Amino acid sequence: MLSVIRTALFIATAAVAIGPAMVFQGPATEGHKAYNENQMEYYLSAEMTEYIRPGYNITVEKVTITADNKIEVTVNFKDDKNQPLDRAGNVTPGACSASFILSWYDGDKRQYTAYTTRKQTSPITGDACDQASADSGGTWTDLELGRAKYTFRTALPAGFDASKTHTVAVYGARNLTDIIGKQYYSNVEVDFRPDGGAVTETWNAFANATCNACHHDLGLHGGSRKNIKNCVQCHQPQTWDPDTGNTVDMKVMIHKIHRGANLPSVKAGTPYVIIGHNQTPHDYSGIYYPMDIRNCTSCHKASSPEGDIWLTRPNREACGSCHDDIDFAAGVGHIAQANDSACAACHAPEGEFEFDASIKGAHTIEVKSKQLKGLNMEILDVTGAVPGGAPTITFRVTENDGTFVAPSALATLNILIGGPTTDYAEYMRQSAKAATVNGDTATYTFTTSFPAEADGTWTVSADVYRNVTIDNGTEAGYTVRECAFNPIYYVEVGAARAAMPRREVVTDAKCNVCHDQLALHGGQRFAIAECLICHNANEDDSAVRPADKGAPESVHFKWMIHRLHTGHELTNDFTIYGHQSREYNYNHIGYPGDRRICGACHKAGTYGVPVPEGLLPTPTPRDYYSPMMPEAAACLSCHSTREAAAHAYTMTAPFGEACGACHGDNMEFSVDKVHAR
Predict the structure, then answer these.
(1) Is pLDDT at 542 greater than 50 in this prediction?
(2) What is the pLDDT of residue 494?
(3) CATH number of 240-364: 1.10.720.180, 3.30.360.10, 2.40.50.100, 3.60.150.10?
(4) By the 8 A CB rule, do 190 and 168 touch?
């Protein structure tokens, strides 16, 4: 988990002033940025805010090339109110650091080469390399409060190409750990041409927001590197790890990290490891990407200026990073390729056929094939919804063009009914493939009835799919499970009242930010509103859990999903047994973001206490006590320590929980406050 702080990022672009030395002028700084409920500054008193002066924003005022080819960078250090900060931390709290990288950019190859390097020798292999790094041994000149000049120790080499784009990248931190327990970080990059010409070639492949969709606030190397453009100054072909021989070139390293456990090399038994600072090993062999890795556009956004590079620039390094069982030089797994010149001849952006050797063709995901006609399930009416009554469901299954699909033609058509929506407690499911067809609709009457004591609103949903063989370029074709999105229909059981939909706590769209197309239990369940019916407070894995595996585990949605996403940060085991008693252990899962940002999954206003009336306790026989009341079950599913459980237990009475007394809205330890970063 990345416990880092979102800071304002200022990108300075260069304009040229001609004089005795060439000067590159940056833009004016941005103004104050407001804080939100996820930031601790939102809750600071006016006095504390005035004292610490939150934030750290580095801006580049100018870049100068001296007569001896040294780079001088004049920078400003300001807080979030655009007021100057003391670099030494004497006048204003927190010393302000800044480090500088100087690189030149090859627009044809789309890669940087750094002038600022360090010698790294492996104590394991004895191999050595010059790694891209920040400048070391330069000098600072403080000009006034919040304004200073840094002169590089590294000089531009004789004969350097002054017509190429050069970049000064700055990263820094303001240390307030001893005051508020956090540091502020800032990154900035300035592009310029030493010959004074207009900058026409720039690296602009990814926006920070693309990475932060899953990572929330990407901050690596201790949290100080936050801009992707800052990262690529060092993470390019020039730099490799002499301990393992692995490159840390961004296009290779990032692909390999994200494919992780599914890399062919890892599956064959070779872990993917990079040894970093202080000889710290980083093993990425356990990474599981939360969506299909072929979703290239999840990172390569069309909205980015270079968002099409995955289509238009096939090369051995990028492609071989995921397909790392290929040896291009030896011709293993691919026709031998000595260079990248012939790649695009076979791997065009898009070919004639959906599944071919083109880039799009090679990354087509079968369930998204254009050959599929689409499948849609609509529940039209429910009758017989009375206590003790057998419900009759009227529904329609169609293809995207409106063509009716007979229930008997489907591989599966299971209708699910659960309730009540105040908090699901039970459900019933039956196959409706034998439904009666009447024109373009069908009806099915359940052979089981609502409980005699049923009351309130109940939910009707369905799992629907058929098996379709598509042409994937092979003789046999590929059989796809084509599914319909789960319909949701609410019906009132008992008294004549308006149906009350189940409260919406999370949304499908929020899940799919990281999962692209969440599809569980064989790819047939998409709607969170349906998941909740079965994953209710009374459900556990006792029916399939082997007798020698101890007490059953709850699969109550809020308990299970919080625990699943907490993964390796849990202090105890979380193993569920599923279909055919298959074991699912989630203690290896690593959440890519910051779990304190509850709003990444939750809708606003749905994760506080006290919770709505009528929610059921969660039996948790594998935890410290059972059952847990509704608020405790939600909180202890993430906060899994014995101490946290003891705290919740002592705050629980037979008639209710006291969580809201301290953690309610506007209280000293409100949920928002204790999760603020």
Answers:
(1) yes
(2) 83
(3) 1.10.720.180
(4) yes
